[in-house]
Design goal:
The protein is an all-alpha fold. The chain has 1 helix and no strands.
Length: about 70
Amino acid sequence: MNEDIRRRDRKRWTLFAVGLLVPVLLVTMLFFAASQDVKTKRGYDAQRVVYEKQRQLASDPEVSTSQHQ
């Protein structure tokens, strides 16, 4: 009888531990995904600035040559 109670308690503690670990892992994954998203957004913003500058440089000579013609 005592051994049967120990098995039930062991199952309960195992389920309890798994039940606590799952939300902790989900929250950890959410923080990791959010931090990666911020890094990616910064990279995209930096690329956007570079492309904008390149487009301005490419369009400036076209404007100046069209005015001289």
